[in-house]
Amino acid sequence: MCSANFSDSFKVFLANVTAFTEPRSFKDAMEFDVWRKAMGFEITALEDSGTWDLVDLPPGKRAIGCKWVFKLKFNSDGTVERHKARLVALGNRQEEGVDYDETFAPVIKMTTVRTFLNVAASRNWALHQMDVHNAFLHGTLDEEVYMKPPPGFLSSGSTKVCRLKKSLYGLKQVPRCWFGTLQTALLDYGFRQSTSDYSLFSLVRGDSEIYVLVYVDDLLFGGNDTALLSAFKSYLSSQFHMKDLGTPRYFLGIEMARNAEGFFLCQRKYCLDIISEAGLLGCRPTDIPLAPNHRLAHSVDAPYDNPYQYRRIVGKLIYLTLTHPELSYSVHILSQFMQKPTVAHWNAALKVLRYLKGTPGQGILYKAGTDLVLTGYCDADYNACPLTRRSLTGFVFFLDGSPISWKTKKQDTVSLSTAEVEYRSMSWTHKLWFQFYFSRCVEYKIMDYVSLRVETDLLIDTNLANACVITYISP
Which residue range or ranges hold the Reverse transcriptase Ty1/copia-type domain (predicted)? Predict the structure, then answer.
């Protein structure tokens, strides 16, 4: 994809995001003064907020470890906003019932993110992105948790450990603590929480409206009233230590560009990182991600000598499908061989990366000034799995021509005919879920889609399956 259509500021942003690298270990970070200062700032912030007390480890107790995670934060113009060092507790060493109890905390669904951006582009809403500084530190721990001192900030001969009084990144229960704190703040301001996606909040005052999407400590929000948006930003800053990132350019690893035509989403940096990790930056691109009639399920090749690398690449490809619907089928196939991949499976994964080499900047465009008509397509592949004889279902939903939801999945049962396969495919594509989602949004004014047709179009290429549906719903 050519970058000539991008604005100069977005070109600078892409260049900076691609060029800068982040340390992967404490040893690497200690070689740079900016990262040493970042770690010092993090420790100071933790101590000022009273996150822990240095105590002797009580008999019978066990202290979990911790590590440093380093991340670059960018401004909307592409410049480096700050070098961030995060101290993370090794929550994988915690024991249920001893160190933690409840852990679940909701995050925004990607379908909701894409739908929100589509509506924002259609209605020309102003969008803002904010980040909560040390968000997890706002929660208070009820459990007794001990942690080893941070690397590099306590003498090697000391036997002291940190008794955690407040939540810390990495602990299993802290996302729940933080979400409860943020939820209370939003509800107190007058927001209403969606029942179809608990990380979507709405505020409607007369003709003014604001919608907030929450993903842990990243907030994406927008609306049709700039004064109300400014007041809301001031309220957030009074409740938490906020960082105003301006116009959204980089949200959850997704690059966002906006102009008069609408929103464009892609994962160019993430895609290039995957290709670079596999050593394929100089490879020849291919036109398709997976060969037809691949027969990977019947592979008799030797086992791949580095299954961890295969799992890591496929795991990254799964996240890449957030903006690459055309990879849904290929990733579905590759993810079935995570336990014992063979050389053929690895070569198939490399073919997907070679396809990405030719399309690193491919993404999704949400157009401005659209009518927001929801249309769904579904299809099925009879007896697609040669091992279980189960068929395959795929669906995609478009909101005025732009994809917002898609998936490829095996059917739960074995079908006996192609008509049965197609009929099951239609029932599985969540048409009723979408109708419930949008009708509930209109009913509770979570998102008032004025021009959205209630009767969603669901299209399939089999007349017999269509006839079965018509017969079933006819009075």
Answer: 51-290
* Beta-carbon contacts of residue 433 (< 8 Å; ≥ 6 apart): none
Structural domains of the chain, ranges and CATH numbers in brackets: 8-266 (no CATH), 268-358 (no CATH), 371-473 (3.30.420)
Average pLDDT of every residue of the chain: 83
Contact indicator for 202, 210 with CB cutoff of 8 Å: yes
pLDDT per residue over 399-418, tens digit each? 888 998 898 888 888 888 77
Does residue 283 contact residue 357 with C-beta atoms inside 8 Å? yes
> What would the two tokens of residue 445 be?
């004014």
What are the start-end ranges of the E strands in 124-170? 126-132, 140-147, 160-166
pTM over cut 0.90: no
First-to-last CA distance in the chain? Answer: 51
Cβ(118)–Cβ(401) below 8 Å:
no
pLDDT tens track for 179-212: 988 999 999 999 999 887 899 999 989 889 999 9
Contact (Cβ atoms closer than 8 angstroms) between residue 201 and residue 212: yes
| Residues constituting the chain | 475
Q: Which residues of 339-374 are buried (b: 16+ CB within 10 A; e: fewer)?
A: eebbebbbebbbbbbbbbbebbbbbbbbbbebebeb
| Residue 306: burial class (beta carbons within 10 Å; 0-12, 13-18, 19+) | exposed
Task: Phi first, then psi: give them for residue 228, nearest 5 degrees.
Answer: -65, -35
CB 201 within 8 A of CB 214: yes
How far apart CA 286 and CA 330 sit, in angstroms, is: 14
Integer Cα distance of 377 and 76 in angstroms: 36
User: pLDDT category, 5, cuts 50, 70, 90?
Assistant: low
The two structure tokens encoding residue 321: 């499908």
Provide mean pLDDT across the span 157-170.
83
Residue 342: phi and psi, rounded to 5, are: -105, 180
Please report how the helices 307-320 and 343-358 are oriented relative to each other, as an axis angle in degrees rounded to 10.
40
How far is residue 405's CA from residue 384's CA, in Å, rounded to a whole number? 22
